[in-house]
Amino acid sequence: MTDWLVTGGTRARDPQAPVLSRVVDDKVSQLEMELEEERNNSDLLSERISRSREQISPVTPNLSQSPSEPRLTDKMETKAESLWIIQQVA
User: Fold this and answer.
1) What is the mean pLDDT for each group of 10 consecutive residues in the chain (90 residues)?
2) CA 18 to CA 2: how far, in whole Å?
3) What PANTHER family would the database entry show (predicted)?
4) Which of 8, 59, 69, 76 has the fewest CB atoms within 10 Å, i.e. the most exposed one?
5) How many domains, in total, are found in the chain?
């Protein structure tokens, strides 16, 4: 960014140039921090997805349970409801 102005055929130093430069630098730093945070969030989400897939893979063969047993989703919903109740009480 230029910090010189041409006025009336002469060059004069722009008094706002250092302020504008600092504002731009601050904004760039802020955006870089936000980008890094998004990358970290993306990495964490990928790890959670991988762990979930690892947890689900052994259960997949059990999806064809006999009708007398509760379905897997029913068990999962009951567990989720229990966890929710515990969180509400705590």
Assistant:
1) 53 70 92 94 90 83 61 63 71
2) 10
3) CINGULIN-LIKE PROTEIN 1, CINGULIN-LIKE PROTEIN 1-RELATED
4) 8
5) 1
